[in-house]
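Risk register update: the risk of archive-format incompatibility is retired. Evidence:
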Amino acid sequence: MVYVQRSLDGQLLRVERQPFEGMTETLELESDELHAWLSREEVRNRLNKLKDSDLELIRVLEDLVGVLVEQGVIRYTDLPAAAQRKLQDRAEARAGLGGLSGLLGDEDEQQLI
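Archived output:
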């Protein structure tokens, strides 16, 4: 189930997984109307833009955690176990690409990571 806000003429304006101020009703996930709304090009473009920025932000957050650990603001072990595992997995994946750094420019390497 998702929570939605409709315009006065009944068009979907906003869809969220959690209740929000201004919502007007709920829809089932299997709803044809919800699938039609999600497939709209505008929504798809926004979702893609968010996805792309998420990938960029992941690297920023990794770097931020590294700086905070290096400066002693936090300890790596202060992070939840799941976060430690994810950061470790990504660090190992990047290390595995280390031999490629001479072949790729910084921009190309970032696109792979």
